[in-house]
Amino acid sequence: MNSVFVICEIDEGKVADVSLELMTKGRSLANQLNCKLEALVLGHKLKGIEKELYPYGADVVHIGDDERLDPYTTLPFTSIIVNLFEKEKPQIALLGASTFGRDLGPRVSSALVSGLTADCTSLEIGPHEDKKAGKTYENLLYQIRPAFGGNIVATIINPDCRPQMATVREGVMKKEIYDANYKGKVNNLDVDKILKPEDLVVKVIERHMEKSKVNIKNSSIIVAGGYGVGSKENFAQLQELAEVLGGEVGASRAAVDAGFAEHDRQIGQTGVTVRPKLYIACGISGQIQHTAGMEESSMIIAINNDPNAPINKIADYAITGDVGEVVPKLIKFYKQNTK
Amino acid sequence: MGLKIVVLAKQVPDTRNVGKDAMKADGTVNRAALPAIFNPEDLNALEQALRLKDNYPGTEVTILTMGPGRAADVIREGLYRGADNGYLLTDRAFAGSDTLATSYAISCAIKKMEKCDLIIAGRQAIDGDTAQVGPQVAEKLGLPQVTYAEEVLSADKKKIVIKRRLERGVETVEMPLPGVITVNASAPDCRPRNTKLLMKFKHAKTITERQSESEDYIDLTADRPYLNIEEWSVNDIETDINWLGLSGSPTKVKKIENVVFQAKEAKRMTPADEEIDELMKELIANHTIG
Ligand SMILES: Cc1cc2nc3c(=O)[nH]c(=O)nc-3n(C[C@H](O)[C@H](O)[C@H](O)COP(=O)(O)OP(=O)(O)OC[C@H]3O[C@@H](n4cnc5c(N)ncnc54)[C@H](O)[C@@H]3O)c2cc1C
Ligand SMILES: Cc1cc2nc3c(=O)[nH]c(=O)nc-3n(C[C@H](O)[C@H](O)[C@H](O)COP(=O)(O)OP(=O)(O)OC[C@H]3O[C@@H](n4cnc5c(N)ncnc54)[C@H](O)[C@@H]3O)c2cc1C
């Protein structure tokens, strides 16, 4: 059986989280399909990178190491991947729905004339019957994704073209070590032989990367504030609650736009997707674009002075009241009960 | 130094404002009740094209849209804001296209048009939400691409310098022309309609629209050719029919479920001390916190 591939992204010299999350998913798909899981890493100064991937169950790590592959540009990456995939003919290829994956994925799928499903929230294996053509298919990849602004969920399949390609956003799949002692092998790619001058026409002149500071994605408790929090100063109260509970502060887009919180704290469709154990939504109305990024939280407490706020529809506890009054009480009674 | 620019624009249902009136009794979305709008990021794309036109006299901005007849609205909207002309690509043969078949049809139309220097698309449409059409068009035309563009910093006939927005930073890249860029919502908003242009192009129509007017309609396009919105069917462009529509689409929709906004019953509380105290005890007891 042909392999499952994960096209990995390099972030500050390491394999990006989203790629490791996909390795975990890819491993379970490969086990189900009884095939190999292979990773593909392109970049520069990648010595030893395979060691980051083996514990996630990589049977083969293809490495293309060349200074022309750092920083990332579309065309050389596309050429190398298309070249490799034409030989290896993977049945499935996954990549992160990051700016990297959403730039590269469609280009590769167009060149290979394979389908590509964007921003999947779930990937499963299943059969399909095409009644019209009188054909049945076993072991297709069900690529499940929201569309239409999150108002519908579609199951997309790609019966006839290979690979079946899909992108998945960071934080959607779970990252889990498969076997700390797992060993695969390395396949070094002859980049020089593949790259042509016309692959190198786009030049990165300058790059300003900000180091990621906040890590709300991996936090099991999130205290999120919306426009209803009212000010940057009031957000400090949320910070205090988060610290007391051992969590992080998140925000709605309206709060970010208003300057109450930094951009990398934004939760929702255009922010990060989180699924903490506890989500406390303070002064957040609960628009679909926000809830799309947090509705899978195990427990949701909503604090809102409007008893009819939509957030209350998905909340486990709806406290009708003023954020400025309720948050200090949460801090106070938490402290009282844990003393 | 005039540039020839094609802006790709899609007419989309306004999925951002699925209000109560657009909800059916069963809690699912009534798509027919959503207004059809100019895809928001395609307006950001149009603005970048219009800025190039402001800076480089002789630049021509053409809107290209693929969709049903009513998608001509998108072209008119573009004309009101400063585009020079537009093409509507419309045919049943395109129905059911996934992003690959869409890109193929669009790339065939672009090949048919006068040679262009730059193609500008929005990053993403708000209905399909894939952000795939821009890069796929670029690949089909064998052109370089720059996605997530926020600002065109400079351009000449040979190359363009672009600032692009990544998750945690910005990048400045140089791309030779011709090429494709896709523009982010974080780019400047599109300028509003211009009243003079609105007057000028109010009666711009496709041939199908003119033919379906009432008998006393006076066709002005003979004297004012700019009032004709070019309409192309599959026969006006060169394509391989197997690559179009449903049959040219590798991805198939197996199943669609409407997200039902059901009311799960929340436990209602007030900020009274006893209630908050009780809640905290509960959360600690079941190990949610603490
Ligand atoms: C394409 C697109 C993508 C988007 N992506 C995202 C995204 O990723 N994340 C996101 O969050 N949004 C996103 N949005 C925006 C989203 O539609 C909403 O506008 C946003 O989530 C609203 O934020 P909010 O709930 O904080 O503000 P509001 O809707 O203004 O709600 C404020 C709430 O606070 C309550 N309130 C006011 N004062 C108090 C008080 N003193 N005490 C208690 N409650 C109070 C009010 O009753 C109200 O419910 C997106 C929109 C679009 C179109
Ligand atoms: C529920 C659902 C899920 C889908 N999922 C997928 C999927 O995962 N993969 C897939 O391949 N297809 C998918 N499709 C099909 C896809 O929505 C259509 O092919 C659509 O025509 C183009 O994709 P998009 O809306 O995502 O555009 P995007 O790729 O997001 O659009 C990017 C830009 O391309 C330009 N553009 C796009 N379409 C046009 C047009 N018709 N005319 C002019 N310019 C245009 C615009 O500038 C736009 O901003 C799905 C459709 C539905 C209904």
TrEMBL record, chain A:
<dbReference type="Pfam" id="PF01012">
    <property type="entry name" value="ETF"/>
</dbReference>
<feature type="domain" description="Electron transfer flavoprotein alpha/beta-subunit N-terminal">
    <location>
        <begin position="4"/>
        <end position="204"/>
    </location>
</feature>
<dbReference type="InterPro" id="IPR018206">
    <property type="entry name" value="ETF_asu_C_CS"/>
</dbReference>
<dbReference type="InterPro" id="IPR001308">
    <property type="entry name" value="ETF_a/FixB"/>
</dbReference>
<keyword id="KW-0274">FAD</keyword>
<dbReference type="Pfam" id="PF00766">
    <property type="entry name" value="ETF_alpha"/>
</dbReference>
<dbReference type="InterPro" id="IPR014731">
    <property type="entry name" value="ETF_asu_C"/>
</dbReference>
<comment type="similarity">
    <text>Belongs to the ETF alpha-subunit/FixB family.</text>
</comment>
<dbReference type="InterPro" id="IPR014730">
    <property type="entry name" value="ETF_a/b_N"/>
</dbReference>
<dbReference type="InterPro" id="IPR014729">
    <property type="entry name" value="Rossmann-like_a/b/a_fold"/>
</dbReference>
<keyword id="KW-0249">Electron transport</keyword>
<dbReference type="InterPro" id="IPR033947">
    <property type="entry name" value="ETF_alpha_N"/>
</dbReference>
<keyword id="KW-0285">Flavoprotein</keyword>
<dbReference type="InterPro" id="IPR029035">
    <property type="entry name" value="DHS-like_NAD/FAD-binding_dom"/>
</dbReference>
<keyword id="KW-0813">Transport</keyword>
<protein>
    <submittedName>
        <fullName>Electron transfer flavoprotein subunit alpha/FixB family protein</fullName>
    </submittedName>
</protein>
Automatic annotation (TrEMBL), chain B:
<dbReference type="InterPro" id="IPR012255">
    <property type="entry name" value="ETF_b"/>
</dbReference>
<dbReference type="Pfam" id="PF01012">
    <property type="entry name" value="ETF"/>
</dbReference>
<dbReference type="InterPro" id="IPR014729">
    <property type="entry name" value="Rossmann-like_a/b/a_fold"/>
</dbReference>
<protein>
    <submittedName>
        <fullName>Electron transfer flavoprotein subunit beta/FixA family protein</fullName>
    </submittedName>
</protein>
<keyword id="KW-0813">Transport</keyword>
<feature type="domain" description="Electron transfer flavoprotein alpha/beta-subunit N-terminal">
    <location>
        <begin position="26"/>
        <end position="220"/>
    </location>
</feature>
<keyword id="KW-0249">Electron transport</keyword>
<dbReference type="GO" id="GO:0009055">
    <property type="term" value="F:electron transfer activity"/>
</dbReference>
<dbReference type="InterPro" id="IPR014730">
    <property type="entry name" value="ETF_a/b_N"/>
</dbReference>
<dbReference type="InterPro" id="IPR033948">
    <property type="entry name" value="ETF_beta_N"/>
</dbReference>
